[in-house]
Amino acid sequence: MAGRGSTWRAVWSEALASLGQKPARTVLTMLGTVLGVGCFVAVLGLTATAAGQISTDFSSQIATAVRVNDAGTNPAGDTVFSFPDDAEQRIARLNGVQAGGVAWSTSADLDLGPAASSPAEAARVTVTLATSGYIDALLPTWRSGGVYNRFQQDHRLPVVVLGPALANRFGLSQAGGVVQLNGLPYLVTGILADVATQPEVLAGALIPATTGWDRFGSPTVHAPASMLIRTDLGAAHQIAGEAARQLRPDAPQLMAVVPPPDPPRMASLINASMRNLFTALAGLTLLIGGAAIANTTLVSVMERTQEIGLRRALGAAPAHIIAQFLIETVVLGAVAGLVGGSLGLLAVIAVALSLDWTALIDPWIVLAAPAIGAGVGLLAGLYPAWKAGHIDPIGALRR
Amino acid sequence: MSPPPAVRLSHLGRRFPGPPPVDALQDATFTVRAGEHVAIMGPSGSGKSTLLNLIGLLDSASSGVYELDGVDVGGLSAQRRTRLRRDLIGFVFQDFFLLPARTAWENVALAMVYTGLPAAQRRQRAMAALDRVGLSQRRDALPSTLSGGERQRVAIARALSNDPRLLLCDEPTGNLDSVTAGQVMGLIAGLNRLGVTVLTITHDLATASRATRVLQIADGRVRDQ
Ligand SMILES: Nc1ncnc2c1ncn2[C@@H]1O[C@H](COP(=O)(O)OP(=O)(O)OP(=O)(O)O)[C@@H](O)[C@H]1O
Ligand SMILES: [Mg+2]
Are A194 and A140 in contact (CB under 8 A)? Predict the structure, then answer.
């Protein structure tokens, strides 16, 4: 007698033959699972791609920024300033530092002075009293001109860098003009276009710390000074560890160093909720896809009652009938998973291409797609197959 | 020593537990010897199909004893009964029961799906069986394109492709005109002459006349005459 293996192989071909007999129905039955698996792969792929994108954006801007706050106190008065006078030069000596400087802020009235056509126009603006290294560390782009130079800072000259908002407001398009701060004239050395961090400076004006110290006073506990250090990529944590001692070897505890946050942790934090939402949606679609398979298979079992009775009369055991229907739904689900996974992958690639991003997709997901589909098919097939296996052959063969 | 009778029934009964309960078969007590062709005649509702389903191991009796080839099947597991059915018994039904989407030869090959024969042999034996019923030229035809007689011949080919020892026919000519019915019964009689034990249920006298022996069933009761 021939082997059991051949019987199961024959049951397998019977299942495939049944799937092939109603191709339109087979395709329609798969649709929900195709969509579900497709959504699943697309969502995971798109969130991974977006996460990769966000973290590269962030890492080049935030992961290279080290902040040093003034932790000093002054029981005698308001003034607090623990940074050394040569803070900028000291920090620049560390390996991996691109730029760094000290700043604090105050506010002042800004206008165009008596020469202007409408002298009444004045604005209360935030003035950042910053060394040029601080502005360099912001990674600025310029609409016109640039940061004030060493000579202007050393000689405490009245020079100013304007943010684009103020430049627009006062109709200044070029560096080289003059504005008044608290009634005193300042030469505009540059107009910012953008900065990588600290976007609030775009709304105000910046003047040299030296000039500012003379005219606006020292930093206070209420508006303390802090240092911004721009490092090479990957050097931030190293520099954060060295900064305090480099600035104040005598009293490093006065320098409160804030290293940048971990970029990967940040990326996953940003994406966790979105990812959960979309994964839930994909899961819901899969559930609907599974219900569609279960429903169609149940209908098909009812339609094929006679066929099942006949197969039992020809010597099929209930297990053979159950296996045939399970194979049908598992194959259906696996093919749907394959198709859906491919469509999802295409969607991720298309979106990434259109946004000029790098498509990032876990190869595990692509491989898992047919398996997920097969799993859905298996779960969906359990009840209909069990029902088919328990159909009474004599009832099925009665006219 | 003579071989055990193919089928031996004593006081076989089948009650369908309603409500209300129906005694579809009350008492079947008869013997079919190997190689016989027995026809069972009786009015509609007399329990003919119920009897045939019991003999075909598609159903289990509520009372009495059924011996198939000397084996009391009453105590056998479902699995053993399924295997006996597959290996010993062939069915021919009034309604043919062909799968509409499968060709003639594929329908015949269906009988061997559960026997463990490799696909090539299933196909080969299906072709041979179709040849025996004179339909080799229609092997690729779908059932819908076949006449009633041709469909029943495909069904007979399906039953004989598995070399059954016992062929059970439930109104095999019920849907056929008398000429076609004669051809189909000729085929069945031919199989019987080759040694297959045949049990045919019918209420057609001409069909019954092809049998070596005719039993009458009434109100679920049938005995050897
Ligand atoms: N599953 C069942 N449940 C309840 N009653 C049934 C069942 N199957 C058959 N019967 C009843 O048992 C009796 C015998 O039925 P059976 O099908 O054996 O008759 P039959 O002789 O084959 O009739 P026919 O010539 O019309 O095919 C009938 O009264 C029928 O209604
Ligand atoms: Mg009947």
Answer: yes
